[in-house]
Amino acid sequence: MPDLARASARASALATVSRPGVGPDCGVRLSERPADALVQVAVPAAARAAVADALGHALPDPLTAIDIPGKSTRLLWVSADQWWVEARDGTAPADLAARLAAAGARPTDQTQARVVVHLAGEHTRDLLAKGWALDLHPRAFPAGACAQSSLAAVSVMLAAVGGGAYDLYIPRSFAQSLWDWLLDAGAEFGVGVD
Amino acid sequence: MLLIPCPWCGPRPQTDFTYGGDGTVVRPAEDAPQAAWADFVFVRDNPMGPHRELWHHSAGCRRWLVVERDTVTHDITGSFKPGEVPS
Ligand SMILES: [Zn+2]
Question: Of A110, A126, A154, which marks where a domain is finished?
Answer without folding.
Answer: A110
